[in-house]
Every structure is written in C-alpha cells, then in structure tokens.
UniProtKB/TrEMBL annotation:
Highest taxon of the lineage: Eukaryota
Pfam families: UDPGT
GO MF, one example: quercetin 3-O-glucosyltransferase activity
Keywords: Transferase
Family: Belongs to the UDP-glycosyltransferase family.
Protein name from the UniProt record: Uncharacterized protein
C-alpha cells in the first residue's frame, strides 16, 4: 500500500505542477533575492515537473537517477514495447529476449505497480522527455558494470551522462532509515568462520505473503546454514505487528540463526563471515553486495528489481 500510494502521488500531475512546482519556484526566487542564488538544480528524474521550474528561472537542471542505466533504458523503450504487445506477455513468453534491451528478458522489464497503467505510461513519458530536456544525467552506477548500457544511452540521448557510482563508496555512510539498526548482529557475526553466514534481507518496502514467509523460515532452518535474517515490521503482508514465526522455529534455529528487525547492511556485507546475500535486488543492496564481492540469491518483486 505504501508503494501504491507513492506511485499515485507521482502520477498526480496537478499536485506536481500547481503545488510542489510553485513552492520550489518560490523558494528559489527568495534565495536569489536574498543574495544566495542557486546555480544549478539537481532533481530526481521522477520529479519531471522541476524542468519547467528550472526553465522559468533560467537555471540548468541536472537529472539524478539513483537506479541503474539499464532501468532507464527500459523506460525509454516502454512505449515501443507496449505497441509490440511485449508488456502483455504471459507464461513462457516472459522468457523471451528483448532485442532492444540485451540481455534482458520480457520478465525483466521494469513496470510501475499501479491500478492506473495509462497514468503510469504518462509518468514514464514525462520522466524520459524532461530528462532529454535537461543539461545532464547522473547515475548511481559505473561504466565497468554497465558499459553496454552506457554506450546505448550515449546513442539515445544528446545530453552529458555521468556514471559516478557507487554513491555509498563516494561519501561517508549515514543512516537514513526510520528503523533502528541492531548492531548486536556484528558481534554475533564475529563468532562465525569466514563466508559461513547467509544474510537475508528484503529491503524496506516489499511485503510477502504469510505462506511465503513460512516457507522462507523453514528453508533457512532446513539448510543447516548459519543465517542472519532481517524481519522488519510490515514484511508480512496484512500484518500490523511483528511477523509470527512457525511454532518451534526459534527453538530449532537457536544455535544456527540470528533474527533482527534491521541491520547496518553495509557493515554486515563487508563482514568476513558473510558468504551470501538473499536479497530483493534493490539497486542499493545490489551495489553494496557487488562492492563487497558477496554472491546473491535474488528475489525481485517490482520496478527495477528484476532488471537489477
């Protein structure tokens, strides 16, 4: 529900154009009048309405994408793929390759999860076209990882493109999560041998069904592998309180696993005891795992997670 509401808000052009845009223009104008003019506006691609604000104030706008280049390329091709009927593919068709976006398959194409696909298409169209109208594009990625996508973007758009990620390696780490990190897991990891622990975390947004949650729990228990599992509030769909683990589970894994509500993930992935990461494939998690050389088991759900 949080994600659906966020997507609905993004697609509300009236809110963007008349309210947020007005407030941003007023703030920038007041800053200039106070002798502190803004030289450049850097905004996320989803905030496409800020291009009109930048144009009205004769400011250059640079677009920031915290996801990868491949996802953005997919957005530029969505209208073509919809015309071809590719986005309505089902069953075995989803395993077919997408010639316009190698090496993606149809199942990997990122789509916005919403009950209003027409409005979502409009959002993506505005996102792409206003990015083309900007003065530059910044990605949280690097050419060694996405060299082929970088080459394709240079052919598709005429503005400068800067792949200067991974961001978390460029600036000191800071905790922006609303959930409190349980740092006791680090001392627990210290007691384990090198590459022996499976780290399990599905990010801050996705929700899974109770049946899948139970299946994951017994899978971890029956693996006989040490594990560190993040079970945050709201992980299980339609559950207001803490997720209910199967009867007897905690006793069975008492010497095998550790369960916490949130983890200092960068530090966990850098710990020598971590041998694998079961992840939802969010881009930040993917980059952090790549940087630490930790292999991943992937459980993508929506958006760019499949292309990641």
């Amino acid at each position: 529900m949080i994600l659906e509401g966020f997507v609905r808000w993004l697609m509300d052009n009236e809110t963007h154009g008349l309210v947020t845009g007005y407030l941003l223009r007023q703030m920038l104008s007041e800053s200039a009048a106070a002798g502190e003019p803004v030289a450049c506006l850097i905004t996320d691609a989803m905030w496409h309405f800020t291009q009109a604000v930048a144009d009205s104030l004769q400011l250059p706008r640079i677009v920031l994408r915290t996801s990868n280049l491949t996802c953005f390329l997919s957005f530029t091709s969505l209208s073509l793929l919809r015309e071809k009927g590719s986005l309505s593919a089902k069953g075995f068709q989803l395993e077919e390759s997408v010639p316009e976006l190698p090496p993606l398959k149809l199942k990997d194409i990122p789509v916005l999860c919403t009950s209003n696909p027409r409005a979502a298409d409009e959002l993506v169209y505005n996102l792409v076209e206003k990015t083309r109208a900007s003065k530059g594009l910044i990605f949280n990625s690097f050419e060694e990882l996405e060299g082929s996508s970088m080459a394709m973007i240079h052919k598709d758009i005429s503005i400068p493109v800067f792949a200067i990620g991974p961001f978390h390696k460029q600036v000191p780490a800071s905790c922006s999560s609303l959930l409190e990190q349980d740092r006791s897991c680090i001392s627990w990891l210290d007691a384990h041998t090198s590459k022996s622990v499976l780290y399990v975390s599905f990010g801050s947004l996705i929700a899974i069904d109770e049946a899948e949650f139970i299946e994951i729990a017994w899978g971890l228990a029956n693996s006989r592998q040490p594990f560190l599992w993040v079970i945050r509030p709201g992980l299980v769909r339609d559950s207001d309180g803490p997720a209910l683990l199967p009867k007897g589970f905690l006793e069975m894994v008492a010497d095998q696993g550790r369960i916490i509500s949130w983890a200092p993930q960068e530090e966990v992935l850098a710990h020598p005891a971590i041998g694998g990461f079961w992840t939802h494939s969010g881009w930040n998690s993917t980059l952090e795992s790549i940087c630490e050389g930790v292999p991943m088991i992937c459980l993508p759900r929506f958006g760019d997670q499949r292309s990641n």
